[in-house]
Design goal:
462 residues; alpha/beta; 15-stranded parallel beta sheet; 18 helices; LRR_dom_sf; Aste57867_2975 protein
C-alpha cells in the first residue's frame, strides 16, 4: 500500500533560504547518477533548501532512486496512486526526459506532457480496446515522444490495430522499435524517408501487412538508409516482389551495407538472393538460417574492405541439410579474411559448428586477430574443444572466449585454461554456461581456482 500523506509531509523547515530554482536545477543536472544526486539532496538538509527538489526527495523515501533520476520513469505505481502522482506533478516539468511504462491514464500524460518541453521515451503497451478510451490514440500522438519501444506479444485484439498510421504522426521520433503488430512496411518506410523525419534508429520485428517488398517500398527504404546520420536498422527481409528487378535488389542490399553506422541486423523469411557490399556499420548481426556457404564466403570477402566493422554476430548458420565441407571452408575463409580486417569481436550463436571439420579450421583460428570470440551452443565435441584449446595456445590476440551452452567436462576446461602456459599474451576471460538441465561434469570450485592460477577470470552461470 502507498504511504499516507502524513508520511510524506516535509520535515521542519529550515530558516535558510534555498538557491534560486534555476540555479538549483543547473546544479542537480550535473549529477548523472542517482546515488550521487540523492546524496546531494540529503546534504541540503531541509525541505526549504531542497526547494522544488523536495517532492523528488520525498518520492525517494519510497521508490528506487534509479527510477527517479536522472530519468523519471512514469510507472503504474507512480501514476495510479494520488499520493505519488501529486509529487510527480510538482517535478515532471523540470525533467528534460522522462520514460513512460504505463499508459492507461492517457489523460494525465496528455495534460502534463503534451505541451511540455520534456521529451519522452515510450516503453508502455497500448491498453486493450476494452479499457482504452475512444480518444486514446488522438491524445497519444500529441505527446512529445522521441523514442518508441512498442511490444504486443499477447493481445490479439491489437494485432490489426493500424498502429503504423498513428506512428507516422510522431514528428520528433528518433528511435522506433516495434514488435507484434501487422504493420504496413511501405507506410513505415515512407514515414522514415520524409525530409522532415528525424528517425535514426528503426527496429521492425514481426510480420508485415505486405507479403513482398515492392519497388516503392525499397525506394523509401533506400532514401532513409542513404542519409548520413542513420545509426541502427534491424529488419526481417521479405521476398522481393516479382516486379523488382535484380539491379534494384542489389542496390537495396548496397544501401543497407552503406547506411547504418552503429548496427545492422538482418534476418530472412525466405531463401534470398543474398548480396553484400563493403559495410559502413560497426556491428553487423546476421541470421543465417536461410543462407548457405556461398553467402558466408561473400560476407568473408568484404571484411577487409569494411574498416568500420568491429563486431560480427552470426546466428543459426546451420549446416544440417547442407554440405559440411562447404561450410567448413566458408568458416575457414571467414577466419582468414578477419585477420586482414578491423573486426575484433566474433559471436557465433547456434551455428552447428560441431558438424564441421575443426582439423581444417584450427590453423585459421590460430592466425585470426580477434580479441573476443563467442562460440555459443555449437554442439562441440571433446575433440573439437581440444582443437580449439590447441589453437588458443598459438594465438596471442584472443583475450576473451565464451563457450556457453556447450557440454564441457573438467578436462576440456583445464585444457582451455592451460593455454596460458604457452601464450605470450594471456587469455583473460573464459565464460561458460550449462547447455542442458543436468549436473555439470566439472567441479566449479576447482575450475575457478585453476583459472586464478592461470590468470583467467572464469565466469560460470547456470
Amino acid at each position: 500500500m502507498p504511504p499516507t500523506p502524513s508520511q510524506l509531509a516535509p520535515g521542519t523547515i529550515n530558516s535558510q533560504r534555498p538557491p534560486p530554482p534555476t540555479i538549483l536545477f543547473k546544479i542537480a543536472f550535473y549529477f548523472d547518477d542517482a546515488a550521487t544526486f540523492f546524496s546531494f539532496l540529503e546534504a541540503l538538509g531541509s525541505a526549504e533548501l531542497r526547494g522544488p527538489l523536495e517532492p523528488l526527495w520525498r518520492l525517494g523515501q519510497f521508490h528506487d532512486h534509479p527510477s527517479l533520476w536522472p530519468v523519471l520513469r512514469l510507472s503504474e505505481t507512480l501514476l495510479r496512486y494520488s499520493v505519488y502522482r501529486d509529487l510527480v506533478e510538482a517535478i515532471v516539468q523540470f525533467y528534460p526526459l522522462v520514460s513512460v511504462s504505463w499508459a492507461q491514464d492517457i489523460d494525465w500524460l496528455h495534460q502534463h506532457l503534451a505541451c511540455s518541453p520534456t521529451t519522452i521515451k515510450w516503453f508502455a503497451c497500448i491498453p486493450p480496446s476494452r479499457i482504452r478510451p475512444v480518444d486514446w490514440f488522438t491524445k497519444w500522438v500529441q505527446l512529445p515522444i522521441v523514442k518508441m519501444d512498442l511490444d504486443n506479444v499477447s493481445d490479439l485484439s491489437l494485432m490489426h490495430t493500424p498502429v503504423d498510421e498513428f506512428l507516422t504522426q510522431f514528428a520528433n521520433l528518433t528511435s522506433l522499435r516495434i514488435h507484434g503488430f501487422n504493420l504496413s512496411l511501405e507506410c513505415l518506410f515512407e514515414f522514415a524517408a520524409r525530409p522532415s523525419s528525424k528517425l535514426v534508429e528503426l527496429d521492425i520485428q514481426g510480420g508485415g501487412a505486405e507479403d513482398t517488398m515492392t519497388t516503392l517500398m525499397l525506394d523509401y527504404a533506400m532514401q532513409w538508409t542513404g542519409r548520413q546520420n542513420i545509426r541502427t536498422f534491424r529488419f526481417r527481409l521479405f521476398p522481393f516482389d516479382m516486379s523488382v528487378n535484380p539491379a534494384l535488389q542489389e542496390a537495396f542490399y548496397a544501401a543497407l551495407c552503406s547506411g547504418p553506422k552503429d548496427e545492422l541486423q538482418l534476418s530472412f523469411t525466405y531463401c534470398p538472393s543474398f548480396y553484400i557490399a563493403p559495410l559502413s556499420v560497426s556491428y553487423l548481426k546476421l541470421d543465417g538460417s536461410l543462407l548457405d556457404a556461398t553467402d558466408l564466403v561473400r560476407l568473408a570477402n568484404v571484411l577487409p574492405h569494411s574498416p568500420a566493422l568491429k563486431r560480427l554476430r552470426l546466428a543459426h548458420f546451420n549446416s544440417e541439410y547442407l554440405i559440411n565441407a562447404a561450410f567448413t571452408m566458408a568458416f575457414a575463409r571467414l577466419f582468414e579474411r578477419q585477420a586482414k580486417s578491423g573486426v575484433t569481436t566474433l559471436f557465433c550463436i547456434n551455428c552447428s559448428l560441431g558438424r564441421l571439420d575443426w582439423t581444417k579450421l584450427k590453423p585459421f583460428l590460430e592466425r585470426c586477430t580477434l580479441h573476443t570470440i563467442a562460440l555459443v551452443s555449437l554442439d562441440l565435441t571433446r575433440i573439437q574443444v581440444a582443437q580449439i584449446a590447441q589453437a588458443l595456445q598459438s594465438n596471442n590476440t584472443i583475450r576473451r572466449i565464451n563457450l556457453a551452452e556447450n557440454d564441457l567436462v573438467q578436462s576440456d576446461l583445464a585444457a582451455l585454461l592451460d593455454c596460458n602456459l604457452h601464450r605470450h599474451v594471456p587469455l583473460e576471460m573464459l565464460r561458460i554456461r550449462l547447455a542442458k538441465v543436468h549436473r555439470p561434469a566439472y567441479n566449479r570450485t576447482e575450475v575457478v581456482a585453476l583459472g586464478i592460477v592461470r590468470g583467467v577470470n572464469v565466469t560460470i552461470s547456470a
